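Entry 12.
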Amino acid sequence: MTNESIRELGIPADAHAYLCDPAGFMSDVAAALQLAGLSGSNIHTEIFGAQAAVNPGLTGPGPAHPHRPPGPQGTGPFVTFARSGLSTRWSDQYETLLELTEACDIPTRWSCRTGVCHTCTTPPLTDHVQYTTQPLENPASGEALPCCSIPTTDVLLDL
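Predicted 3D structure (tokens):
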């Protein structure tokens, strides 16, 4: 869509526009709407998709230092968090890798917990995960969604 094509729509200056898509698209369309006479306060946006992180997958220090999860150690595959220097066995008490990550106080990004938003996208550095809930859209090759996956073998995550 071009600035000219938006102007040709004849959108009234007091209209409200609701945009949801990737940030770059919304920025371009919002600018074109303003050039067409729409007030910036009448343009509402919601980001679709993961936001960029300073350290991919990490948001900063958590409330505590990373540690093994409370309770008895699991008997499943080893889950190793590369950046946090922590390794623990998977336990069926967790429904997803994200829940294990939280139990270990390992900082990570997340939002939907169902594989829709891809905010939690994380590179598994070794082996595979299995999705307990099929993501709305599969992650890119070499990436996993901890919010809706469990390890099938020992796994090394870039967290």
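Annotation: Helices lie at 3-8, 23-35, 97-103. Strands lie at 17-21, 43-47, 78-81, 86-89, 124-126, 129-131, 149-151, 155-157.
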